[in-house]
Amino acid sequence: MTFDELLNLVSSSKAPDICVDSRLVEDGAVFVAVKGTIYDGHDFIDQAAARGAKYIVANEGKAKIEIPDAGCEMILVEDSAEAAAVLAQAGRGKPASKLTNLAVTGTNGKTTVAYLVRSVIQTAGEKCGLIGTIVYDTGLDSSKADLTTPDSLLIADAQQKMVEAGAKYMVIEASSHALSQNRLTCIKFKAAAFTNIAGDHLDYHKTQKDYMAAKTRLFTSLSPDATAVLNKQAPEAELIVKQTRAKILWYAIDEPADLTAHIESIDITGTVFTLGYADQSSIVHHPSSVVKTSLPGRYNVSNHLAAAGLCLAAGFDLETIAAGLSALKMVPGRLEKVDDEGVSSTSERDAGHLGNPSVFIDYAHTDDALKNALSALKPFCKGRLYVVFGCGGDRDRTKRPRMARVAEQLADFIIVTSDNPRTENPDDIISEIVTGFEYPDSQTIVVEPDRKKAIEFAIKTAARNDMVLIAGKGHEDYQIIGTQKFDFSDKLIARQCLRNRR
User: Fold this and answer.
1) What residues form DSSP beta bridges with 59?
2) Chain segment 97-120, per-residue pLDDT in tens
3) DSSP state of 67
4) Which domains, from first to last, does the chain contain?
5) Which of 202, 298, 438, 466 could staple 462 via S-S, CB 3.0–4.6 A?
6) Residue in 476, 465, 480, 484 with CA at minimum distance from that of residue 364
7) Phi/psi at 47 (nearest 5 deg)?
8) Where are the alpha helices (DSSP H) in 328-441?
9) Exposed, middle or buried: residue 354 (CB in 10 Å: 0-12, 13-18, 19+)?
10) In this predicted structure, what is the pLDDT of residue 278?
11) DSSP secondary structure of 407-430
């Protein structure tokens, strides 16, 4: 059977199941051998065949395994990951073609941008599916995300549900892993936004150049009638301009660009800024609109601009965009303030908080993200600024000392702890972090490998006017130790610590 014949089969009423995980294969299924982040599906072709796969799609030159089932057909292609995406869309009735697809990529800010885009579209009275780091929301159902960008089969399934739910739009976070593995093939994007690039994922991409090249792939795939929404204040965006056919929409804070934000006021409760847009293609200047957002920090203004650019490209007007940006009150685990819930009355709540520090959780797990979060809090901290952080195991080791340097520069008191150590020794990870401190023996630096104890120590030690930032895990409600996941929520632990101070 040729690939075109297989494509016709999966598009028919008698379509077989399509799998990229050999463990899910059933009789008559199509197994597509795809190289992933950790495992290579080509190593499991024999298992898929043994489980009853009727068709196996594999890369040319890699499939040299004898198939034990004589009725199993091997179909060789140039790129099996791309083939999986093509088959997935065909098998689900090509749902991507029925949606206005918007994407955002970059080291930091993707989740916030995606939530802001959805807020704008929902405020306008339309339905918008969302696929990202926190949640896969189709409108018919919602599930916790396993990966920032799932495999092409799951994306197609989600898009099919979005269409069934009446959605006309989808916004998706595009990770560098997904882009390098062609998980987004077959999706025509109306617009894609680039936030920034910082040191991360070098355990996978090996070099910063390769990391940026993966991000750029999103923009090289854009058609000439699509829009690339680019951060003018990120120098790396110039590399994208050279490699995309799309129209360019630049955004910037307080400097000339197509889309601009002029900050009127900013504090820990949020920011007020004027959103301005000049359509260079028609030399039309649109009336500016005021955005009042509860998301604090200058970096979040940049995230608002990226979201606004995507929504402009999707056809929404500036006034609608400003209203939608203002409507979003919080993004889970993104500089989220932890409150002491469960107090029975207002007077008890006020009394209970008299001696409590302000506590925030944030997903910051790169030095750049940690710098943004601490910089957002520091100007408004009347006392000492505490930070609790660690680094993930089996991940980019180069950022560990850099995170220490950022913490030492911006925080007044530092507690180094575990994040998700995975299969690494937590003490070894902490040792690599500590090498980044200029003054590791300072009395303002504490090492506590037990994350729960580290959070408890910070909140118990902090005074009323202090602030505590618990960084690294944000929305996550688990901790990975070894190969096991354990229930663990920074937010719930911090909330209990605040209650215990009453």
Assistant:
1) 77
2) 999 999 999 999 999 999 999 999
3) P
4) 3-78 (3.40.1390.10), 92-327 (3.40.1190.10), 336-500 (3.90.190.20)
5) 466
6) 476
7) -65, -40
8) 346-352, 367-377, 399-410, 426-434
9) exposed
10) 85
11) HHHH-SEEEE--S--BTS-HHHHH
Going by C-alpha positions, the residue among 457, 456, 466 that lies closest to residue 494 is 456
Residue spans of alpha helices (H) in 135-286 = 152-164, 176-180, 202-205, 208-220, 237-241
Amino acid at 43: D
Report how far residue 159's alpha carbon sits from residue 269's, in angstroms, rounded to the nearest whole number: 35
Longest dimension (CA), the chain: 76
Pairwise CA distance, residues 245 & 231, whole Å: 17
Helix 367-377, helix 399-410: angle, nearest 10: 10
Using one digit for the tens of pLDDT, what is the confidence trace for 287-313?
679 999 999 999 999 999 999 999 999
Residue 135: which of 118, 120, 122, 160 has the closest Cα?
118
Q: Which of 469, 287, 299, 422 lies closest to 372 in space, CA to CA?
A: 299
Closest CA to 433 of 367, 360, 363, 342: 367
Rounded distance between C-alpha atoms, residue 482 and residue 472, angstroms: 18
Extract the tokens encoding 198: 């910082």
SS3 assignment, position 20:
coil
Render 240-278 in DSSP notation, one character per residue: HHTT--SEEEEEEESS-SSEEEEEEEEETTEEEEEEEEE
Query: How far apart are the C-alpha atoms of 183 and 90, rounded to whole Å?
Result: 15
CB atoms within 10 A of CB 158: 25
Distance between CA atoms of residues 166 and 325, nearest Å = 22
CB-CB contact of 87 with 33 (8 Å): no
E strand or H helix at 498: helix 490-500
Give residues with Cβ within 8 angstroms of 429, minimum separation 6.
Answer: 390, 391, 393, 400, 418, 419, 421
Q: How far apart are CA 128 and CA 316, in angstroms?
A: 13
- pTM flag (> 0.90): yes
CA proximity to 92, closest of 26, 25, 160, 34:
160
Q: What is the mean pLDDT of residues 155-172?
A: 98
Are 18 and 151 spatial neighbours (Cβ–Cβ below 8 Å)?
no
